[in-house]
Predict the 3D structure of the following.
Amino acid sequence: MSGTDQTPAPPDGDDTATAAEYALGLLPADEAEALEARLASEPALRALLAVWQTEFAALAQDVPAVTPSPALRGRIQAAAFGAPEARVWWQSLWPYAGGAVAAALIAWVVAVSGLLSPAPQILRSQLAPAEGAQLAMLVTLEPATHTLTLTPVPGTAAVAQGRALELWVIAEGQAPVSLGLLSPEGATAIVVPDAVAPLVRAGVLAVSDEPEGGSPTGAPTGAVLATGRITPT
Amino acid sequence: MTKAGNSAELLARDEVERLLERVALRDRKAFSQLYDRTCAKLFGVCLRVLKSRAEAEDALQDVYLRIWDKAGLYRVNGLSPMTWLITVTRNLCIDRLRARRDGPGPVDLAETVADSAPGPEARAIAGSQAARLNACLEALPEGRGAMLRRVYLDGASYATLAGETGVNINTIRTWLRRGLIAVKECLGR
């Protein structure tokens, strides 16, 4: 959010004040954009903003609670849920994957800083456990060769007899595409076909529990165990 | 930051957090439970900012639709669940307020000039985070704390404040930036 004022005085360069102005919606649009651009790569600035948002939210704690009219509850549910629809689990990954971004962001910052140097860039991220699962995986992508490497975080991968881990990439609104089976121990390197590579950069990665040899149907059949993205949204 | 001084507060935080996680997975029951658990607090904020019951209800609907769509994102920002919910609510309401002001029709300054200092009841929450912040705001010279409170709760912009006080907009910004730095130092003590 940004203020609609004509541009006032140039800032004094103090991030404490600028982050607070952003939290309050006082920053002129251009300065708000500049701050947003820095947030992804500056954890200290993100932390500063979170401190201000938390402090200011305390002002709302003073505001008395008021019960809205009972009819509103149904109206909101109808608007949110819409017509009944059968959702399959990979469709629910889109909102969920956002939660995994937090962990991935830290790793991503490391990768982004590599953008500035001429050295070959490797994107690093991780897949976070899905609800009820414990599998976590470290992921790297070498864009030059489209090589994905997935390594389970030690102690988090447990595969039952006759079962296997299968990696999928899911682009928004599309069916999952299998990228192959993963070893529960140690790293698995997968060279992604050129046609699928853009999906890997843009989509959600998910690991599901499948029969030995992989999904017999070409679509995930078992529980989703871990999800994440190689690049943040 | 939030140091929940009692276990009830911690439990409530955990409950909202768990509900948000389930809402992120499109759990409708969790969404309804989250609504029941938080709607009065968030509606209070809508009403405080917008000062119209009909508009506050429309805003509350926007808020919960945003929550339904974005619940998975709250962790990204490093906020506690309740802070995230309040921030989403406050920002959506201020956007509405500003759209209303910038849109057709005269700006109704009268309704935003009301004293927004917390009442005696709120002040009584001694030692709470809000009390600490309010004390730091009140320590600022020349009513700048009240200006900042109005920015948060009434969506006042630098232009609004300049218009009301007759002070140059650049000067207002310089004052409030200094004020914010002073508040941060005060909170750190």
About this structure: The two ends of chain A are 18 Å apart (CA to CA). Residues 9-85 of chain A form one domain.
